[in-house]
Amino acid sequence: MAEQAIICKDLTKRFGDFYAVNKISFEVDKGEIFGFLGANGAGKTTAIRMLCGLSYPTSGEATVAGFNVYRQQESIKRSIGYMSQKFSLYENLTVLENITFFGGIYGVPRREIKERSRSLVETLGLQREAGKMVGELPLGWKQKLAFSVAIFHHPRIVFLDEPTGGVDPVTRRQFWDMIYEAAASGITIFVTTHYMDEAEYCNRISVMVDGKMAALDTPTNLKKQFSAADMDEVFYQLARGAKRAE
């Protein structure tokens, strides 16, 4: 059996009478690219915050990299990388300053930060931009840099929260090439997105609808199950079914 990087059982987050996440259960294997799909407001970000040790669940159980989300949040934070569309880099710092800063936050030794920074800048083709403020970079380059920084310390799992929002299709494809490379190195990828076409890039996906997990399987199996040509049609059927059940 594959080693499990994430295990969730009936994980729930409630705000008063509102269930942002309602008893979701799933497991993610080590090295897997796991897609966490759903429309805006479906509960994706709330779930990812609990798994990253940033928010306590109301009820349920979960372990991330073997650590308990209630009792070992700091250990979880040291074992993961995290990238958000909304905030990942400091725009008033240069490319190299951002890499150095986050390398230090993640606990990478200073000598290694210098060596890895040089290699990273070369890999991304940002030698000329290394001294520029991140705010001057195009969005696509910011996102590539942010992802590279999120895995700079070689985490066991990286959480990507809507990482490709706002970027053009070509850049999105290049970004996914980077994800494949990270997964091939053994890093588990947990990615949330509302772009249904990105589901095709994942090994397995779950679909969130109104805080609940409406489906979980490979993209191919889900399309067969719903007799759908693409994941947009799968999501449409799931969302329509949820509304009918209300």
TrEMBL record:
Pfam families assigned to the protein according to its UniProt record, in alphabetical order: ABC_tran
Listed SMART domains: AAA
Membrane-crossing segments per the record: none
InterPro entries xrefs: AAA+_ATPase, ABC_transporter-like_ATP-bd, P-loop_NTPase
Name the UniProt record assigns to this protein: ABC transporter domain-containing protein
Source species, domain of life: Bacteria
Species assigned in the record: Compostibacter hankyongensis
PANTHER family: ABC TRANSPORTER G FAMILY MEMBER 20 ISOFORM X1, ATP-BINDING CASSETTE, SUB-FAMILY H, MEMBER 1
PROSITE patterns registered for this protein in UniProt: ABC_TRANSPORTER_2 (PS50893)
Entry keywords, A to Z: ATP-binding, Nucleotide-binding
Stretches assigned to the ABC transporter domain: 6-235
